[in-house]
Amino acid sequence: MNRHDGRAPDQLRPISFVLNIAPNSTGSVLVASGDTRVICSAMIEESVPRWMKEQKVPGGWITAEYSMLPYSTLQRKARDISKGRLDGRSVEIQRLIGRSLRAVIDLDALGQRTLCIDCDVLQADGGTRTASITGACVAAALAFQKLLDAKVISKSPIAKFVGAVSVGIVNGQPLLDLNYIEDRDASVDMNLVMTDEGKFVEVQGSGEESTFSQEELSAMLALGKKGITELLAAQQEILRTARAATQI
Predict the structure, then answer these.
(1) Domains of the chain
(2) Of 52, 31, 17, whose CA–CA distance to 97 is shortest?
């Protein structure tokens, strides 16, 4: 099938990172995946949650918050605070972001600190949760580098890197990195989170009033692995560029 943006079935949307977009954070990045744009920031708090102190749990903690700004969609999206509660989707996504980072970050190396991740969607065109995870990992790496430079920690707590991408089946064709129109029309929608070792952190998949076969599942997993490998390479490239710039 011909995708409306001209991409091949196994092709990512253009991915870019703008670092240090939020100067008051410890690390931040504006990640753009096609027309989806998310600001991911990482801040370090020199404390851990109360439950960790009470239970004498060693190491640090990671927490995440996710929100879609009112102007991120074609129709204004009311802020959660105006409804007095987080909507279920936001809760689900921020828990996914937290789980994804906790899978690859050494909490003992973080020490008695909390890494606070905030992901704010500026523009939504599908894949906001996967862009948030990919960007949050970069923001965390920047934050940890700042702690290393200040000799607050002796080694980076990032044991592995993590990336995420959507896949799905649209008009019978497995596709990588769905935008909004494709996601809307997909008979199967799936989000994959993987590490740089090629291991899965999470697989979220469901048929939208449809079913899918083992062969279709295998095709989607292969597409997702290809896409995440490319996203992880883009993460490393922007971080190498940032390190080189500080050494000039």
Answers:
(1) 15-246 (3.30.230.70)
(2) 31
